[in-house]
Amino acid sequence: MSAVVHIVDDDESFRTATQRLLRASGYAVETYDSAERLLQRLPDDAGPSCILLDIRIPGLSGPDLQDRLSALGSHLPIIFLTGHADVPTTVKVMKAGADDLLTKPVTKDELIAALERAIARSRAWREKNEQLHSLRSLVDSLTPRERQVFERVARGKMNKEIGRELGATERTIKAHRSNIMDKLQITSAAELVLIAERLGVLVEQPAEIRR
C-alpha cells in the first residue's frame, strides 16, 4: 500500500507541483485548498500517511487545524510548510507534536526525507496500536474472577496471598493462573506483567480494594 500524503495549501501551483513530484516518487496524494476542506473529508489512520500543511492559509490556519485534529483524536503526523518562519509559531507547532517544519522553497530531497520520517512514525504508531488492540482483546476474554487473579499476579502477589484475598484455595488460584496463561497465549509470569504494564493495568487498583 502506497503511503498517502495529504497536502493542505491555498497555493494551487504549489499543490499541483508538489502532487506531481510526490506521485512520481511513489506516494498517493490528496490535496486540499483549505483546512476546512480537509476536515470535511477527514483522513483516517487506516494506513501509513501524513499531512503536509501550510502554516498561513485563509480561514482556519495550519496551527489551528493541528489543534482541531488533535481534539478529534487524529494521530496523523504533520509536517508544516511556511514561507515566513518565526520562532513563536515554530515552538508552538513543535510543542503540539508536529513532526517537522520546512521553509519554502523546499528541495525535493529535504521534502522526501521529512516525509519518510513522518510516515515511518505513522507506521510505527499503527503497528503499536494494533498490538495493543490485540492484547486488550485477549485480556477482555478473561472471566471477572480471572481478571482479578490476573491483576494480582501482575502486582507480584503469590497464589496463597491471592487466595486469601479472593476467598479461594491455592489450588483454585493455580487453575485460574493456568487458564489465564492459555488465554493470553503466554508461558511466564514475566510476560503477564509486561502485558499488564503495556495496558496500564498496574496503575489501577482493583475495584474491590479501592478507597
Gyration radius over CA = 24 Å
- CATH class wording of the largest domain: Alpha Beta
Q: In the CATH scheme, what's the topology name of the largest domain? A: Rossmann fold
Strand arrangement across the biggest beta sheet:
2-1-3-4-5
Order of helices and strands: EHEHEHEHEHHHHH
Instruction: Quote the beta fraction.
Output: 5-15%
Major sheet, described briefly? 5 strands, parallel
Tell me the distance between the termini: 50 Å
Percentage of residues assigned to helices: 40-55%
Overall pLDDT level: 88
CATH architecture type of the largest domain? 3-Layer(aba) Sandwich
Q: What is the number of E strands? A: 5
- What's the helix count? 9
Question: Structural class of the secondary structure composition?
Answer: alpha/beta
Tally of discrete structural domains: 2
Short summary:
55% of the residues lie in helices and 12% in strands. By secondary structure, it is an alpha/beta fold.
